[in-house]
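During the no-cost extension, the postdoctoral fellow (Dr. R.K.) reprocessed legacy sequence entries with the updated structure-token encoder. One reprocessed record is reproduced below for audit purposes.
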Amino acid sequence: MNHSQTAGKQRERVMREDDFLVSKTDLKGRITYGNRIFIEFSGYSEAELLGAQHNIVRHPDMPRGVFKFLWDTLQAKQECFAYVKNRSKDGGFYWVFANVTPSYAADGKVDGYFSVRRKPRASAIAAVTGLYRQMLEEENRVGSKDACGASLALLNNALAQQGVSYESFILSI
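Re-encoded structure tokens follow.
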């Protein structure tokens, strides 16, 4: 069953209410597991995904500063929530509400990362789309060397103006 709709030149895949996209990566972000729903939405085969960098599904509309925040949060051994626009193999896209957490080995050390994504609310996508566009514009303005820091600063300034933390913002939209 095809769960897509045309959106301009890009084809959007819309998650079903009961879908959960699950993946696991090693410490370097290489995919070590993907459930069948992740494989379906990515458009890649399991063989293409396993061992690939998770950014294989990174959409160019996503600011690098969001991923910098995510990795900084994970490095601090904390979970991170984010709205993410991903790209599928055919050039289409799908939005997710992601929860990413460190995964621990038996010795208590972080051995990778576990991500569960579900269908985001349309209102949340609308809320982050403009912010992400501003972050991308800032990244392009300053150039690749300073892109992550500049867009993350823009995000932090926007949150400070609203008087909310990142997590409070993400969980409230």
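The radius of gyration is 16 Å. The chain has six helices and seven strands. The remaining legacy entries will be reprocessed before the final report is submitted.
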